[in-house]
Structure formats: structure tokens, C-alpha cells
């Protein structure tokens, strides 16, 4: 899962990065509204955590611009001002959830996971497709209810395929959501990860539709 965390306080930004990374997200950071608007308008994210009190452009204006341009990624809004009027304004502008400061990182991660689940059509943390099941709270994988140990990168790949289980996911899209800007993004690196997972999970879990991408088998 690829997340954008928009926060101008370096300490909070670092904590967001650490907490979301530990929860299985590949995190990118933005420190002002101008950068946030550009990234959110030109890149695809599975989640955005957006502080409203930003320099350059305030967070509410950034959110309104995204929604006006048809950007539909889930947005969790953070603010130091927790009045009900501001919460209503944020929700009406297109926020999916709202968290006033100060907050516990555990609650933020729980809300982030819930937003991503709902965006993918999942009601609970236990997600199942065919023989594969993922517990997104515990970050655990099982095939036919038998636990399978996977790496963080392998888990992110499975979670993204589960999130988009209704279609084949092109390799280029998977690369964008799995790797940071400084990491290797060659197709053969992705093929190696998929090959390792197929050995661990066995046949009938990850399929390939030639010319379209990878998908999770439904039966």
C-alpha cells in the first residue's frame, strides 16, 4: 500500500512515517500544501494522511482541489483544531475520516487500515480471496488456513493484489506501490518477488494474465 503523509512538523512527520511503514505502507512525505497538492494530483496513493495547518496552501484547500480534479483516494484529515464545525467542513470537502491532535499513533494506524479496507470493499481486517487470506491488523498470511511466513515486501504485494482483486494489476503499477524512489524498480525485481511468493504459497494463488498483469485466483 502506498501512502502520502502531509505534515509540516518534522517530529510528527517522522512518527507518521515510522508508524505507517511498520503497518505495511510504503510512505512518502510532503511538508507543505503546494508539494502535497502536486503529489496527490499526479501520483496514485492508497491513502493520504493530511494535516490541515500547512504552509503555502492550507490542507482544506488542497483537499478541495484534489476532489475537484477527480482524485478519489481515501483521505484521513489531521488538525489541531477539533471543533465540530471544522470537522463538518472537512468532511463536506471530501475527507473520509477525521482525527484531532494530539492523537495516538495506534488509533491513526487503525483508522488508516479501515479506510483502505473500505476502499477495497472489505468490511473486516480478515480479507479472503480463493485459498488466500490476509489479516491486515496482524499482517499475517495464510493459504487454506495454514500460516505462511512472508517478508514485508511480499506482504505489501499481496495486500495490493487483494485490494484490487477484481482485476489484473499491471507490473508498472505494482512497482510504483511497492518500491520507494530510491529502490530498484526494474520488472525483473518484481518477477523475483512474485516467484518467491509462488514458491511459498503454492499453485493456484497468484495468476498472470499475459499483457495485463498479476491477479489473485478466485477459486
TrEMBL record:
Gene Ontology CC terms, in alphabetical order: cytosol; protein-DNA complex
Domain of life per record: Bacteria
Location of the DNA-binding region in this protein: 124-218
Keywords: DNA-binding, Phosphoprotein, Transcription, Transcription regulation, Two-component regulatory system
GO molecular function list: phosphorelay response regulator activity; transcription cis-regulatory region binding
Gene Ontology biological-process entries: regulation of DNA-templated transcription
UniProt domain Response regulatory: residue ranges: 2-116
InterPro entries reported for this sequence: CheY-like_superfamily, OmpR/PhoB-type_DNA-bd, Sig_transdc_resp-reg_receiver, WalR-like, WH-like_DNA-bd_sf
Coiled-coil blocks: none
Residues where 4-aspartylphosphate is found: 51
Domain OmpR/PhoB-type: 124-218
Name the record gives this protein: Response regulator with CheY-like receiver domain and winged-helix DNA-binding domain
Organism: Salipiger abyssi
Taxon lineage: Bacteria, Pseudomonadati, Pseudomonadota, Alphaproteobacteria, Rhodobacterales
